[in-house]
Amino acid sequence: MRQSESSGSNVDLEKGAPVRYDEELVELPEILKESITGFGGFGALLLQIAHPGVARGVGNHSEFATRQIDRAEKTAIYVYMMVYGTQEEKNYIKEWVNRMHARVKGGDGESAYFAQDPDLQLWVAATLYVGWVKSYEMAYGPLPEDRAERVYQEFSVFGTSLQVPREKWPKDRAAFDEYYRHVIENDLRLVPEGEEVYWHIMHPNLPWVFKPFIPLALYLTKIFSVDYLPPEIRVTYGLKPTTRYDRFNRKLMIMQYKMTPKFIRSLPKRYYMKRGRVMVAKLKERGFTGDMRMRSH
């Protein structure tokens, strides 16, 4: 296998596809330990549910209206375990995700969907890449070209850990931009299931103790996500670009975040890794094997 020397990233130039990063990640641990990247999750979710296949899967199977915190936590556990977990831990989490996804299917013809569809998984992984990297760059500035390419290649793990073939991940950031634009222009539209999920995002059904903080939380996530959403997606959701006041508040929040001690900024990472390891122990008790030879059902 020949590797790219110009970018310093592990890219198979003969196949034009990234090498899977299941064994060793260098850049992602540095990016995702910064909890500010989590603010990109709002925009990523909006991009996901704008895809009919994803929207139908989430809307019809995840009980999103009543399990918003649970769904967000399980997504976070998957993400952090794929980046910071041991290989054994990753295998158990992958097996668990695969079993969950195997149930998420339905519809006929153009309305058919299946959570193990590599195209849908690729789109979800792509939205995570866009959302988290954009949020990181809002706080720390644009990544240098060589590091940006390495970060991009390592993000392939969120697709290749499941059913996305290695060669399906766009070979570099230029190819990704073409893919991203193509999906936005040709595949995205808000179906009824997506509209319902969006309503529940904006009107979360949370315990009363959290309710006073909902308006502030929604505002902060929006000012970190709205500007990187394509204009047509903003129009779809009725969102407006940030104002000068919004951008001032975003800068102020970033300043406060950077002044926060690192051990506090990385609290989500430690919390979800602890939760993830408890989950792995429970999966073992339930008879999961961590055997990834059977990747789909």
Chain-wise SSE layout:
Layout: E1 11-12, E2 17-18, H1 28-32, H2 41-49, H3 52-61, H4 68-84, H5 87-102, E3 105-106, E4 113-114, H6 118-140, H7 145-154, H8 157-160, H9 173-186, H10 192-202, H11 214-225, H12 231-237, H13 244-259, H14 262-265, H15 267-285
Antiparallel strand pairs: 1-2, 3-4
Helix pairs in contact: 2-6, 2-11, 3-10, 4-15, 5-15
Residue stretches low in confidence (pLDDT < 50, at least 5 long) are 1-22
The helix content, as a percent range, equals: 55-70%
Mean pLDDT: 89
Shape category:
globular
Question: Approximately how much beta-strand content do the residues carry?
Answer: under 5%
Please give the number of β-strands.
Answer: 4
For the sheet with most strands, the description reads: 2 strands, antiparallel
Category from helices, strands and their pairing: mainly alpha
H/E series, N to C?
EEHHHHHEEHHHHHHHHHH
- Compute the number of structural domains: 1
For the termini, the CA-CA separation is 31 Å
SS summary, helix count = 15
Q: Whole-number radius of gyration?
A: 19 Å
Strand order of the largest sheet: 1-2
Pfam family, one: MPAB_Lcp_cat
InterPro entries: MPAB/Lcp_cat_dom
Domain ER-bound oxygenase mpaB/mpaB'/Rubber oxygenase catalytic: 35-250
Organism: Aspergillus calidoustus
